[in-house]
Every structure is written in C-alpha cells, then in structure tokens.
Write a structure and sequence with these properties.
The protein is α/β, with parallel strands linked by helices. The chain has one domain: Rossmann fold, CATH 3.40.50. Helix content is 35%, strand content 23%. The protein is built from ten helices and nine strands. It has helices at residues 63-67, 71-77, 124-139, 154-165, 186-196, 200-204, 208-214, 232-236, 238-248, 264-282; strands at 6-14, 17-26, 31-39, 48-54, 80-84, 142-152, 173-176, 221-226, 253-257. It has a nine-stranded mixed beta sheet with strand order 1-2-3-5-4-6-7-8-9, with helices on both faces. The longest helix has 19 residues, at 264-282. The protein starts with 5 loop residues before the first strand and ends with a helix. The relative contact order is 0.14.
Length: 283
C-alpha cells in the first residue's frame, strides 16, 4: 500500500452517521495500521470537531467502537471519533518474548521507543500526535483546530500524557481508569525499561503525575476511576494524580465511582458524560 493512500475495510450506519474502518501504511510505525472513525450526521454538511480515543492493553481499534455506545452521543453533539490501534502490528514487529499481554503487540503505551528491537516500529506517541491527525484532517470532514482526546487504562495514560505535553493541540482531555504514574507501577517498570531504557528522567516525560507538576497551561481534565477496579492499588495509582493536582494547583475533575470495575461496562455507563464534557470544550 502506498504511504499516502487509505483503504476502507468496513462501514456501518449508526445513529444517522457512519462507523467506518480503514487501513493505511504508516511511515512513522513502519507497518500497515488500521483505525476506526465515526462520522456523525453533521459531517455531511461540513467539518466537525474530533475526539481521539486511545484504548488499553490487549485492545485494538474496534473495542471502543463495539462496546462503549459512544456513537449515539457523538451524533447528538456532532463530534467525530477516531479510534487508532494500540500498537504497531504485522510481520517483523517485535512482541513480548513470552507473548505476555502487557508489552509488545496491543501494548504500545503511546511512547516513542528508544531501545531495540522496539524502536523500529514502536513510535506510537508520534503516530497519535502527528501522523494520524494529518491523515484524518486531509481525508475527512473534520476540523483539526477543534480536537480533544480521551482513553482507557493504558489509553488513559496515553491521552493524559499526550494532552499535557501538547496543551495547544487539544481543547480537553478525559480518561477512564488511567495508568497515572508508570514511574511507580509494575506495568511501567516492565514496559518503559524495555521501550525507553534505564533513564527514569526519560520515563518521566510519559508520566501524568510528573507532567501535572510541570504544567504551565491548564486544560479541562476529567478522570473517572472505579473503586472496585482490581488494578487500582497496584497499577493505576489514582491517589498520586489527586495529590499532584493539589500540589500543582491544577484543577481536575477526578471522580471515584463506587462499585465500578475496569471493564467496558464502566466506560459505557459514563461515556455520555465524557462526550458532553468534550462538547463543552469543542463548541
């Protein structure tokens, strides 16, 4: 596939809009990639604002599309939703040597890898920030000046870190169950040491808690976390994000939701509120 072409591989009508799926060659990731795109009915009349959704470990571009129920709310507000894949894929793309779920395929962590064998393909930060939006803005009726970002778990980490590092690019950011501090959890220890090497100052560039401490510009931030999430204590570290926001005087809505877990049942319950939150920032 030529680097400047896209191929449609799926299309469904949904709430008056179109749920689409595409394949394209990524020069940044050095492989073919897929992404899903919801275009609300308002896109038929002109460019609409766009929300990027970053999914979590083991997911691809279709999990959110099929499970979250976001299309109804995107259609109501007139917002497009772009769902990238969660890692590079294909022949020759490195994977966890033990085929574990938390590194390699399906676990790009939205960083630009520095270490081999990962660096050849695992440049997800640059793909999400630059290459994919350039393609979306060129090919589809979206207004690239009105962009927000959201995600779940590993994708919540990705959404928060990308937005905090580039506040001029986004109107708002939200997250469900984000990995708040890879510097302080087993997932971060494993993945960042492999992708980035041993320099923990480099890790800090992809750590939401550290980025909050350094932020000069404040974006609207909404975080939902279930208190029955089995990853909360060991991996997600929401309390560190709450503390960092208080110390840095960074206003954030961080909501602990009683009895909710890490699943898409949690996301589907609160996705309407997240879409409304972004709509307030985008319009």
């Amino acid at each position: 596939m030529a680097s400047n072409t896209i191929e449609q591989i799926g299309a469904n009508q949904s709430f008056g809009g179109r749920q689409l799926r595409y394949k394209h060659q990524s020069a940044v990731l050095n492989c073919d990639m897929t992404f899903s795109l919801y275009l609300p009915p308002q896109a038929a009349k002109g460019p609409v604002p766009v929300l990027y959704w970053l999914s979590g470990l083991t997911c691809n571009d279709e999990n959110f599309v099929q499970k979250a129920g976001a299309q109804q709310h995107a259609a109501e507000h007139g917002i497009a939703i772009v769902c990238p894949d969660t890692s590079p894929r294909g022949d020759g793309v490195a994977d966890d040597p033990e085929a574990a779920y938390d590194m390699g395929l399906g676990a790009g962590f939205y960083v630009d890898a520095k270490q081999q064998p990962w660096a050849e393909h695992y440049q997800m930060y640059s793909y999400i920030l630059d290459e994919l939006p350039a393609l979306i803005n060129r090919e589809f009726p979206v207004d690239g000046q009105r962009t927000s970002i959201s995600g779940h778990s590993m994708g919540g980490h990705g959404a928060l870190t990308i937005a905090l590092k580039n506040p001029e690019r986004f109107k708002s950011v939200s997250a469900f169950s984000p990995i708040c501090s890879p510097l302080n959890c087993p997932w971060g220890d494993k993945v960042l040491s492999n992708y980035l090497g041993d320099d923990r100052q480099l890790w800090a560039q992809y750590d939401t808690v550290e980025l909050i401490k350094q932020a000069k510009q404040h974006l609207p931030v909404l975080v939902d976390q279930g208190d029955a999430d089995n990853f909360l204590a060991e991996q997600l570290k929401t309390e560190l994000l709450v503390g960092a926001g208080q110390v840095a005087d960074y206003p954030m809505q961080i909501r602990m939701q009683p009895d909710y877990d890490h699943s898409y049942f949690f996301i589907a319950t609160f996705i309407a509120e997240h879409m409304a939150f972004h709509a307030r920032a985008l319009f």
